[in-house]
Fold these 4 entries.
Entry 1:
Amino acid sequence: MAQSIRETERKYEAPAADDTSWLPDLTDVDGIASVVDRGTDDLDAVYYDTVDLRLADTSATLRRRTGGSDAGWHLKLPLPGDSREELRAPLSDTVPGDLRDLAVSRTRGAELRPVVRLRTERHRREFADAEGTVLGELSIDAVEAESLLAGETRASWTELEVELGEDADPELLGAVDKVLREAGVERLPGPSKLARALEETKVGTPRLPDARAEDVVADSAGELVLGYVEKQVRALVELDPAVRRNLPDSVHRMRVACRRLRSVLRSYRSVLDRAATDPVRDELQWLAGELGAERDHEVLQERLDAGVGALPRELVLGPVTARLQAWHVTKSSEARSRTQDALASPRYLALLDSLAGLVTRPPLRRKAAWKPKGVMAEAVLKEYDRLAGRVEVALETPPGADRDAALHQGRKAAKKARYATEPARASLGKPAKRLGKRVKGVQKVLGDHQDSVVARTELRRMAVAAETSGEASFTWGLLYGREQAAAGERQRELPHVWARASKPALRKALGH
C-alpha cells in the first residue's frame, strides 16, 4: 500500500533564484529561531494525466520524480485549506497499480499518459525553533516546463514554496505568509506547479471545481440544484480513495453522498429531466447498497458491542464476546469484499461517467430557468407531505412487524425530506433550515428504532446458534429484551418529535 504523507504549503512568486536579497528574514516570525541552508536539489518530474486532464480538473496530480530525498511516484489529492495528501510509491517504469486504483474515481478508467515534464533546481532552507526542531522548509524553485502533448512548447519561471513539517502548528504558515507579504512577496493564485505548466505550455487549462458557498445567491432554480449535485458528485469522487484504503467513516460518508444525490435527483424532477436522471438514480441505489453492507455491519457491531459492554459481568453467560468477535470477523470480511468488488467493477466506472455527464451536460427542464424560491418550496413541501403520510400510516398501524416496516418507510421519507431542504436553504433561508433540523430529529428517532429491529434479528440468530452449540443463550435473550424496550421507547417518543416538525406555520413560512 502506498505511503501517505500530509503536506501543508503555500506558493509565492519569486523574483529570482540566484539573488535572494528580496527574501525577508524568517527569524522575525515568532517561533522560528534559525534558518539553515540545505543546498540545492535537481528534480526531474514527469506528470501523468488523461488526455482531457481529468486529474488536473479535480486538483489532483500524479508524477514520477527523480532527484531529492523522496524520489518515486507521488499521487497528490486535495485536502481542505492549504493541505494535500501525498501518496507515495517506489520508482518503477509504469504507473504503480495501487496509485492507479486510487486515482480511478477521477480518471474513470481512462488511460494515464505523460502530459508535461518539469525540471526544477531547488534551493532549500529549513527553519527551526530554539530547540533545533525543524518546523518546515522554504524552497526557491527555478522551474523549466516542457509539454509532452503539445509539441515542443516550453515555459520557465521561479517560485517560492513554504511547506510546514507534519507536526508544526498550522498557524505558523499564516505568520510566515504575513512576513513575506510585508516584504512584497505575492502569493501565487494557482494550486500547483502542474496547473501553471499545463497552461503556459498550452497543454490545457484545468477546469477546477467551482467552490460554491451554501448561501450563494442564485438567479435560477437550476443553478441551485446543479450546485448541490456538483458538490455531492465531488464528495463521492474524493471519498473513493479513502474507501479503498478503508479509512474511518469513509464508507458511511460515500454512502451518504450517494443517498443525497438520489434524493435531490428525485425531489427536483421539475428541474432535471427524470428520463436522464432516473437511470443514474438506479445505479446510485446499487452503489449505496453495496457500500451499505459494510456500513450497516459497522453500525450493528458498535450497537451489539455497546450492549454487551453495558451489562454487569455476572449477566454475561457463556462465550458471548468470542461469538461476537467471530461473527464480526466473518461479516466484516464479506462486507469489505463486497465494497472492493463494487469499486473495481465496470458498472462503477459507468456510473462515474454518468455523473460526470450529468454535471457537464445537465438535462435541464423549463423550470430550471425559473426563480428559485417557488420551485424549491414546491419540492420541499412535496417531500414533507410524503413524509407526513408515511408517519401517519405508521402511527395508525398496530404494534408489530407491520408497524416496524411502516416506521422504516417513514425513516426513508424523513431522509428524503431533509435532503430536499439542503439545496433550498440558499433561497428559502431559515424556514428550510429549521425544517431540515426538525425532520432530522424525526429521522434520528426512526433510525434508532430501525437499528433496534436489525439488532433484534441478529440477536435472535445468535441465540439460536448458541443453543445449538450447547452454550447459554441467556445473555442474547437479555439483549433482545433490552432492544425491544428501546424500540418501544422510540415509538412512544415519535409523536412528540413529529409534532415539532409538523407546525401549521410551515407552509406560510415557505410561501405556500
Entry 2:
Amino acid sequence: MNIQRKYSLPNCTLLLEGLSDVTRAAHFQEMRPELSILVNAECYLSGYNQPLTGGREFFESLVRAVSGYAQEFLSTVPNPQAHNQESELVEFQKVDSNRHRLIIHSEGTPEGFDRSNNSKRPPIEIDLNTVQLFDLVEAVDQFFADTQTLPELSLELQPVTRRYGGASQAVIRQAVPAAVGVSSLAVAAIAFNLIPPPQMRPPQPKTDEQTSSTTNNIAPPASAAATPIAAATPTPTPTANTKPVVKDLEALLNTVPEITDPSQLRALNRQVYNQVHPAWANRSGLQQDLIYRLGVAADGAIVGYKAVNKEANLGVGQTPLPNLLYNPANRAPISNEPIAQFRVVFTTKGVLEVSPWRGYATTPQVVGAKITDSNIVKGLNQKLYSTVRQTWTGTHTFTRDLKYRVAVNKDGVIADYEPLNQVAFDYFRETPLPKMFNDIYGSNVAAPNDKEPLAHFQVIFKPNGKLEVTPWQGYQ
C-alpha cells in the first residue's frame, strides 16, 4: 500500500511517500499504517514553485543539516554538522541574521556513468529568511513526533565541543536543549525582525520521473495549519504489470469493525458533507467526476480515502480531501475504532455527492429523544409553519420541491435541519433555514441540538411559493 505523510506549516511543507513493510504484520492492525520504506521526499517552500526532491539519503541529510543548523543558530556555537559538504547532500550557511542559505548537492553518480566534473550538476542554493527556517525546523520536528513514519530514524545530535568556537561552558550547555526540543524553536521567531522573503534562486528541476501521480498534483496550501496530516492514499506504481492497489480500506476492515447501523450512517453522512462541502473552493475545471471511497470514524473524523477512478487519483489536488484528514495533534490516535465507508463524488457540475458506500440496509431513523405527544406536536407544527412563512419571501430560482427535515425543541426553536434531496442541498440559501440556524448557533453547519427531546417535521418549499409543514413520518 502506497502511503503519504504531510507535515505542513505556512511557509514549508514536507511530503513523504513510501510503503509499509509487509513483514511487520503487527502494523497492519493500526488504523494509520506505518510508513517504513521511504520512496520519495519533497520539500515545498513558500514563494518557490518547485519542490526539493530526493530519496532517503536526501531526506536524512536534510533532517541532520536542519537540526544542526538550528542548534548552531540559537546557541551561537558553530556546529560542523550543519556545514559538512564532504559527506552530506544538504548543508546550511549563514548569510546574515535574517538570511540562511540552504545548499543541496547532487547525489553521487551511479557506477557505469561518466563521473567527470562536467556531468555533475551544480548545487542548488536557496536563501531562507528566519521565519521560513523555523517553519522548516518545525516540519522536521513534526516528522520526528510521528511514530508511524520511519520509526527507526532518530535524531542524533551531540553537544558541540569547545574547539568549535571557544565558547564558554554556559553557552555550550545552551546547545543541548536546543537540539532536544526543536519544536520550541518556532517561539523564537518573534525575537527577530521579520523581513519579506528574499529573492530565491530557482532550483534545477529533477529529470527523474516522479513516483506518484497523486503527489505530482498536490500543491502545498498557501497557509496551512501547523499540524501533521497523514493520508493513506494508494497511487499507481509506474510498472506496467503491477495490479492496482484495491485493498487499503478492505484490509483495515479485516481488523477493525465497520459501522453499518443505518441511523449512525445517516448522521455521519451529514458530518462528512458538512466537512467537505464548504472546503471545496474551486469547483471548475473538472473534466470527469472524481470518485473516492472514504473511511470515517464514529466521531466524523476522515481517517483515509482511496481514489475509485483514474481521474480521482490524478485530480486529488483539486479536492479538499488531503487537508481534511484527521489531525493526530487534536484527536486521540486511531487504533481499533470502528469506521464507516462513504462514496464521495466531486461532479463536473460542481455538485458534491455523499452517500454510504454500501447504501442503507434498512430505513435510517433520527437519533435522539423525541417529542411524541400529539397535542404538543400539533402546536409546534403550527408555530414552525408561521415562523418559516414569515421569514420566507418566496423569491427563488429553483424549479423543484426543496424537502427538509426540521427539528424544534419544546419552545419551537429550531434545533436541527437536514436537506432530504439534492435540490435542497443546492438551493438551501434560498430558504430561511440557514439564517434561522445561524442566528442561534453561529454556524450553518453546527452540530444539532441533541440534549433535549425534539419534534421533527418535514418542510417542503415549493416552486410556486407554497410552504408545507407536516409531522415527520421518517426517511423515505
Entry 3:
Amino acid sequence: MFRRPSITFRTTAFVAVVCLALVALDGLNSWHSRRVQLQQMSVATSNLARAMAQQADDTIKQADTALVGMVERMEYDGTGPAAIERLRKVLAIRVAELPQLDGLHIYDKDGNWVANSRQTPPQNLNNANREYFLYHREHEERGPHIGVPVKSRVNGKLLIPVSRRINRADGSFGGVALATIDISFFTKFYDSLDIGQAGAVALVLESGTMMTRRPYSTDMVGRNMLDTGLYRSYVTQGPVGTAEILSAQDGITRLNSFRRLTNYPLFVAAALSKDEILAAWWRETLWHTGGVILLALIVGFVGWRLVKQMELRSKTEAELRRARDALETLNKTLNTLAMEDGLTGLANRRQFDVTLDNEFSRAMRDASTLALILIDVDCFKQFNDIYGHTAGDECLQTIGRTISGLASRRPGDLAARYGGEELAVLLPNTDVAGAAVLAERIRSAVRDLAIVHAGAPDGFVTLSAGVDALSPSVTHGPPKELIQSADKALYAAKMGGRNRVCTAEIRPTTA
C-alpha cells in the first residue's frame, strides 16, 4: 500500500529541491553564458577571418594585376634592349607603388633573368629549378600561380611567389613573370590584430603548405599542414567554417574560423585561445556560483530548523494520518470493487453502462462516432460442462487479459465483462470498419491462444463478435440502439458458424 510521504519528508525534500534548483539554475545559467561567450567569439573569429581573407586577396590581386601587364608587354613588345629597359623602369615604379612587393621579375624559357625591378640586376643567377618555374613550364594554363614560399637569393627574405606564364608567338613556353610578396607584409598586418596572448592567425595554401603565421617563426614558413586538425577541418567543412581545434604547432586548444580567398587557392585561419575566451567567464562563474552555494547553505540551514519543528508536530498527528490513509485505502478498494469485474479484471457491467452513457453524450456533442464490439465465447457452456467451472473461470481470465491488451490502448477505450461469457469493447471516435478490424484482431488472438475445447467445432476456444457504430448527432437514438444493433450482428456471427466477426449489416469479416 502506498503511504503518503510525511510532512517532514516532504519539507526536507522541498528544501533539498530548492537548494539543488538554485545550484542547478546557476549551473544552467553559467553554461548558457559559456555558450553565448563561445558563440560571440565564433562570430568575432569569423569576421576576423573575413577581413584577413579580403586583405590577402587584395594584396595578391594587386601583384597579379602587375603581372598581367608584364606578360602583355613581353608577348607583344618583345625582348629588345629598348623594350627591356622601358619594362625595367615600369617594374621599378610598380614595386615602389606596392609596399607588399619585394620585386618583379621576368625569366626566359631557360630560367635566366630578362628584367627585374632592382637597380642592380643580379648576375649569373638562374631560377629554372624553382617550383613556380617548373609549374609554368609543365602547365599551359595562363592564370596566376601561387607558389610555395621561397627564400630570396639576393637579400635572404622569405617571399611568396605569384607568377604567370609567358608564351611565345607559337604558344610554346617562353618564360615566367614573377611577383614576390614579402612575407613580412603579412606578419606586420597580423601583428596589428587583437587576438590575445595565445591567439593565432595563418595563411595557408590549399595544397597544405603554411605561408605565414602568427606567432611567427621562420621554421613555420613552408611547413606541411596536411596532417593537422586545421587542414582536416578546412577540407571537411569547405571554404568557410569554424571548428575547435587542438593546435599541432603549440598544443593550445583554439576556436578556429577559416575562409578561402575569393580569387586564389589559399585560405586564412583566425583562432582565439579557448582558455582566454573563457577566462572572464570563469572568474564571473566562480564568484556568483560561490554566492549561490552560500545562499543554498543558508536556505538549507533554515529548512533544517523548520523540519525539526515540524517533526515535533507530526508526532501528534501520526494516528490521524494513519486513520485517514486507512479510510482512503478503503474508499479506493470499494470503488474498485464497484467498477471492476472480480474475475476477469475488466470493467464490470455497471462501469460499462456509465461509460456508454458518457461517451454517447460526448459523441453527440462532438458529432463523432461511437463503436461497440459485443463478444461471446463460443460453446462456453460445453466448456464448463467438460472441464469444470474452475477451468471456465481461468479461460475467461485468459481471454479477458488478451482483450484488455488489445482493446485498451487509447484513454477512452473500455473493455468490460457484459455478462457471463459475454464481453464488450466500447470505442469512441471509431467507425464500423475500424471496430471490425479490432474485433478481428481479438478473435484471431484468442484463437491463437489454442485453448483446447473438445466441445468446439475445431477443438479450440473461439470467439464470435458483433460490431456496430453510430453517430448520435445523426441517429438521435438512445444508447441501447447501439447495443441492440451490435447484439444482432453477434447473433448473425453465431448463426453463421461462430468464430467470426459480423458487422451490423451482417457481413462476416472472417470465418
Entry 4:
Amino acid sequence: MKRIISLLIISVIFSCGKKLDLKPDSDIVQPATVKDFENLLDNTEVMNSTPGLAQISADEYFIPDLQSWQAISSVTQRNAYLWLKDLYGAETKIKDWSAPYTTVFYSNSVIDLLAKKDISNDLEMQHIQGRALFSRAYAFYALVSIFSKAYDAATAATDLGVPLKLSSAIDETQPRSSVQATYDQIIRDALAAGELLEQNFNPEKKNRPSQVAAFAFLARVYLSMRKYDLAEWYADKAMNLYAVLVDFNTLPITNRSSFTVNSVETIYYSQQIMAYSSTTVGSAPLYGIDPLLINLYEPKDLRLKIYFKLSPVGHAIIKGINSIGYPFTGLATDELYLIKAECLARRQQKDDALLFLNTLVKTRYVSGGFKAITAANSSMALDKILTERRKALIWRSLRWTDLKRLNLEGRDITLRRNVEGQMYSLAPNSPLYVMPIPLDEILLSKIQQNIR
C-alpha cells in the first residue's frame, strides 16, 4: 500500500486540469479553491472505478469453448472464473485491491486538507467534503464485499475486514479491521456525506455523488448486511427524492448500448476497473450469458433486445447496461424499487411488494405486453422478486454480494463451471467467496491473509 500511495502523489499532478499535488512541496500548488478540489474529485478513472473480481466470479456467464478459454491472457481472470485457491498466480499489482485504495487516498487527502480550513459557513466546501466522504465509503464497501466474508451479525466482530486508512499520511499503515468495524466506518462516512452533499444530482455530472446517492448507497449496504428494515428506510429516503423510471419502449435499440453515462435512471455513476475485458465487455465476446438466465426473460421483455446481442458464434452477450463500456456498478432507481419490494416481502407485505415490483417490470416490456406478477404468499413473492433482481441488475457486480447474503440465509446456491468436460463448483458459504489479499500487499504491509 505504501508503494501504491507513493506513486499516487505523482499521478495526482497529471490527473487534474492544473498543477496540483497533495504534498507540501514549495514548488507545487496544493488544492485550495472549490475548482481545485473539483478537478481532483472529477478524476473519474480514480473516483468512479470499482473492482471486477465480483463480476467475473459470479454465475451470470460461461466461457463456451477451449479456444475462448485459451484466449484469456489474464491468469487472475481465468482462476477467478474457476474459483481457484491460487487466484493470482504470479500476477502482481492487482487493481481490484489497489484501485479502491487509490480512491481512499484521494478522498483522505481532500478530507485532511479541508480539516485545516474553517468551512462551517462555506456550503461549496461542505459539498466537497461530502463527496470525499462518500467516495471513501464507496471504496471501503467495494473492498469489504470482495476481500471479506459476508456480513453476519453473529461473527462480524471477529471476521476480518479491510484496513481502514483514514489519513492521507503515506507512511501510516493499518492492520485489518473487523468486518463490523469496516461496515461501521462505511455507514458513518455515508451518513456524514448525506448531511453535506447537495440534495439533488447534476443530471449531466452523475459521476458526482448527491444526497440521493448517499441514501441509495446506504440502502445497498444495509441490504448486503441483511438489515432489511434499514435498507427499506434508506430506499424510501432516496425514492422520496428521486424515483424516476424509464419506459424501455422509448429507448433506441441499436447494436451498442442504449444508455449513456448520465442515463435518466442513474443516480450515481461508477464502472468496473478497466480490466478483465475479455469476459466483461461486449466488444470482446469470449463468453456467453448463462442460457438459464437468458431463458428467464419472456419474449415481450424489451431487455432481451436492449441488454443483449448475439456474438459471432450465437451466444448472448452484453451490449452495456447503464454504461457504454465496462460494466456499470453505480446506483440507479431500478435497484431501489427492487430493494423496496424485497424488504416489503420480507415483512409480509405481499401486495405492496408486488406493487413496487410490477411498477418497475412493466416499464421493461413491450407496451401492452406485460402481465402483472402475482404470488399466493409473501414467500412466493420474495422468490419472484429475487428472480427479477437477477434479471434487472445483471452485469452490475451485485450478484456476488447477493449470493453471499442469500446463502447465509440458507438458499443453498451452488455455482458450477464446465471447462472442456472438467467440472468446477463453488459451494454455499465457501471460504473461496473471500478473495485473497494480493501477495505484494501482504509483503509490504504484513497484514493477515484470508484463508481459502
